[in-house]
Amino acid sequence: MHIRRVLLFAILAGSAMLSFAQWEQQNSGSDAQLRGISVVSAKVAWASGTKGTVLRTVDSGKHWEKVGVAGAEGLDFRDIQAFHEKTAFVLGAGPGEQSRIYRTSDGGRHWRLQFTNKEPKAFYDCFAFWDKTHGIALSDSVDGKFLLLSTTDGKSWSSLQPRQLPAALPNEGAFAASGTCVATFGKNDAWFVTGGPAARAFHSTDRGKTWSAAETPLQSGAPSQGIFSVAFWSRENGVVVGGDYKDPANKTRNAALTNDGGKTWEPATKGPAGYRSAVTVIPGASPVLIAVGTSGSDYSLDGGKTWEPIDSLEYNAVSFAAANAGWAVGPNGRMAHFTKVPEKLIAGPSN
What we know:
The chain has one domain (25-342): Methylamine Dehydrogenase, Chain H, CATH 2.130.10.
């Protein structure tokens, strides 16, 4: 890269940091605790939360329509994954039969129940998809074993029985704070993350048939501490965020990154400004990371090594489909649209 281009990029990056982005608050028409958000495009996004809430916009958030599951008002939809303005999956989190998965193919007018948990001790926290027919879901551990589901047709879910899966530590589990405790990449890779007695990241290269586990430097030791969210933008490069949800302003050991697919993790040199429940990647030649939590939101331009604050409002989850196509959600129906991402920064400098 020529020195002139290096200097130009430095100037662009520096100016971007001063006015990197803003959240534009929108009216969701709901007072639910929103914990799930899935962005399809600049116009289409879906959100989910308590009281069986599912919301959808097809006009960039000017209007949010309630498209919840009939008869599911008592469920807490902690995760949602959309593929189209018509097609979406939603995950109900909770003990026993409160953990359910539904799917719609007509924009939320009708929902089909695909899975109901029959294990009383299980609590499904999150799911993720490789494509619209292949997905994986994670439950807290039961009797020392993490429970997993998979779908291979997008229509039904069955128990996934890995050939190799490290045992769960006593009281080790995942967090259903944002539906992002499991992530997928490419055609076969998956990661899930835990908290409590340890903050570990589990990795599979074969859609959940075999798993390995790695320690991370994030806070752990208490039930409120650990990794809350994981995101990858290549098979090698990823980030985890978390901390202690009972101490949301605590900046200690709340983010880490990997450059080897999750075999080893290094702490951020400057972490987010507190506990963070969700992290996502803005796609591009130079990926930008956004993390949110109950004490605010932050961004990283260097793969998660250092983070800068955006604001201090309370959010639970965040999702992006592209630059300037992102939303965050939070308590009392909070809905925020992300604006002013510098296109030159997202695209990255030329070589």
